[in-house]
Amino acid sequence: MIDTQKQPQLLFDTARIEAQIAALADTHAGRDDAFRAALAQLLKAETATARELVQAQLLRDRHGRRCAEQLCTIQDDVIRLLFNAATRYLYKVPTPSEAERMSVVATGGYGRGLLAPQSDIDLLFLLPYKQTAWGEQVAEAILYCLWDMGLKVGHATRSIDETIRQSRADMTIRTAILETRFVTGDHALYDELVTRFDKNVVQGTAAEFVAAKLAEREERHRRGGQSRYLVEPNVKDGKGGLRDLHTLFWMAKYVYRVRDTDELVERGVFDAQEYRTFRRCEDFLWSVRCNIHFYTGRPEERLSFDMQREIAQRLGYTSHPGMQDVERFMKHYFLVAKEVGNLTAILCAKLEDQQAKPAPVLSRVMARLRPGARRHRLRENPDFLVDNNRINLVSPDVFKRDPVNLIRIFRLAQKNNLAFHPDAMRAATRSLNLINEKMRENPEANRLFVEILTSNDAEIVLRRMNETGVLGHFIRAFGKIVSMMQFNMYHHYTVDEHLIRCIGILQDIERGGNDEFALTSDLMRKIRPEHRAALYVAVFLHDIAKGRPEDHSIAGAKVARRLCPRLGFNPADTELIAWLIEEHLTMSTVAQSRDLSDRKTIENFAAVVQSLEHLKLLTILTTADIRGVGPGVWNGWKAQLLRTLYYETEPVLTGGFSEVNRAQRIAGAQAEFRANFTEWPENEVNAYIARHYSAYWLKVDLQRKIRHARFVRSSEQSGHKLAVNVGFDEARGVTELTILAPDHPWLLSVIAGACASAGANIVDAQIYTTTDGLALDTIAISREYDRDEDEARRATRIGEMIEQVLEGKLRLPEVMARRSGRAKVRPFTVEPEVIINNQWSDRYTVIEVSGLDRPGLLYQLTTAMSKLNLNIGSAHVATFGERARDVFYVTDLLGAQITAPTRQAAIKRAVVHLLANGDGAAQPAA
After folding, report:
1. Sheet bearing 103-107, strands edge to edge
2. CA 223 to CA 218: how far, in whole Å?
3. Residue-wise pLDDT tens digits, 437-495
4. CA 156 to CA 102: how far, in whole Å?
5. How would you classify the pairing of strands 870-880 and 181-185?
6. What distance in Å separates the CA atoms of residue 602 and residue 590, rounded to the nearest whole number?
7. Which residue, among 62, 10, 57, 710, has the nearest Cα to 329 in the 3D structure?
8. pLDDT, tens digit, for every residue of 41-79?
9. For the chain, what is the radius of gyration of the CA atoms?
10. What is the pTM of this model?
11. What is residue 724's three-state secondary structure?
């Protein structure tokens, strides 16, 4: 409970304001409405001034909790002044009856004595009996004034009896009353509520309350995306956020009947160190939340990309080599979220010991599988015991006696399918100083770690090792990337969480049975058995060097060369792991941004890969990496591109012999199409198949081929020369436009321009031509609306625009000119990069363009290339979060490669200028 007397009074001079209110009452005597309006105006101005002082202090001292306390004190003073004004000047009762008493009580977050700048305030007007006319008038006067001040107020007017009855029935009301705080009015009334709430509601219901709060917390995390490492976290409701700390305190308050967090140390729930951590986490989260509210001017709780850098700077973070200021701030945020998780586990363990909380979910599941389990020593190792299907320590000195036990406990739990007892995890965290150089070099410890990494449920066990800090202390390079975020829109998780998730995906691939991993699951069975562990270690280490000044692939390979001998790998396997890490982005880059039907592309890639075994391992690693980036990043199209690259490269590496050679694969893809598409007569299917080039059959997935066939047939039957079909890809959150049109050199530019003029951002494009001169293009654009009907109308508008431009009814440059200046400023910076080379193709010059993505970029690029007298043979469009990577295969107007250095330099200058300045030069007519 907060002592409002401790707050500096200079923020809000109540005595001076009270005198001004008295003067207003005299001025407006007999005119209540005018008095109320003047009162609201005065308090609004005073509050605004006081809040500016609080914000200035927050920016100076960065104490979030103090800021929230001061805002709360100001609000308390406002409500006291309003109550006094209402009872003194508006509804004065000379001799109040027993019923004409009222206590104004703060509830919910405001009741905790902490208030964020834009938060609602929750009030309870507490009455002795049922509502009276006087009570109603006073409550209304206070509320109307607060609303006139522009505040959001949640309120209830209840008697004590009614409050107790509703608290019993409704867990939300019960939690709100648990957090009440007296503000003004009749103190005796409030004291009676507290006494009766303790006696009639709380006593004997601790287990029920704790179970309800934990269930609520699980549901909240499920809704918000389970991981506490989502890179745009919700500071209030996200995992490891303020609500988790509140839930902690609610449970402690309910079970131990404490009024303030420091009492939890006296009750032995937290030790002094853990309590300091609690306060530090709380202060940090409040600093972040208060700054977000002040910065946005609204009750925004999500720490989105566009404000992360601003908040980092407000909190005083600076850039270091290899890490931006914003990345250092977010790393700190995720470390705090992790500590909040640890504190929750500690309290839950304590409550469980006292039988207040039912066994955790995992234990309940295990108990059903193995009924009648009880405490017993683990047969394999007498240092550990099984307690209700959870592994625990026999004595507190188990780790001290043998530090290898800090790794062994995780391997034993994994082997015996046991959950972890929170006391054991707490002991592990307190014993991290035992993990020294000697222990890290211990062969047994390293053997156990590799076993953990390569055995079932590795993802779950590694996550627990990470939460306790053991993983980061044992593998020190991993410790450096714990809670590290990358300031981009491509990665959804922190680096450590991404690596752990990739291990889980690798196990999914190895298990098989999942169609999206059909190729890699097959390859996993075909790799040399001795390379299995090497692959797991490569997946675990592939991003280990993020956040360093050096390229993370090269630096990561160096880390692997130092670490792998310690883990028991021979020089050959160590070199293999280092190679996989160094090349872990190569296959993804080639598959998504090169022409896979160009022989030179395949030969160059094969020269990097060098052996079939390398190709298999790299394909598996690439799949796990893309799949582990975040929801919707892996899709059927990327899977198909990787498959194509694999099968195109395989024969080059086997000296011409391929397990599935190209002609067979084309025939196989066509046979698969025939078998699954039985709607047309055979002669029509054959004619349709003949209309597509071989690259189409190799690169497009089956479901899309079937959709294309239906679309082409319906368009031609309707007599349309040009048609647009709209589809939705839920997993990726994109809308797909499939366009059928007569092919001509400007088509891609027209499509890109039509999308840009409608404000649609192209995230990828698949472009194919038929043997009879038609283009069949699939363009994926970012969604703008949640509802499919709204999105379909938008996509149809874009389709109509493409049609009008191609028919000459609309001029794109004019439409684009009308749209200019509307672009939203992005919080990211991507250094523009243009690479021009003739080594990737024998026929074409390849121009690789990388820069900050924006609506209209593809249109500007294609238009600029036409102005530069370049013919685009093929384009490969890909987006990685906010980074666009577009690759164009071009020739000059005579069909030759661009070889003159001066010409290459001119092209590069023009494209870099376009990327950096966001404007194309004068556009030629469409």
Report:
1. 153-159, 121-127, 103-107, 181-185
2. 9
3. 999 999 999 999 999 999 999 999 999 999 899 999 999 999 998 888 765 545 567 88
4. 13
5. unpaired
6. 9
7. 62
8. 999 999 999 999 999 999 999 999 999 999 999 999 999
9. 33
10. 0.71
11. strand
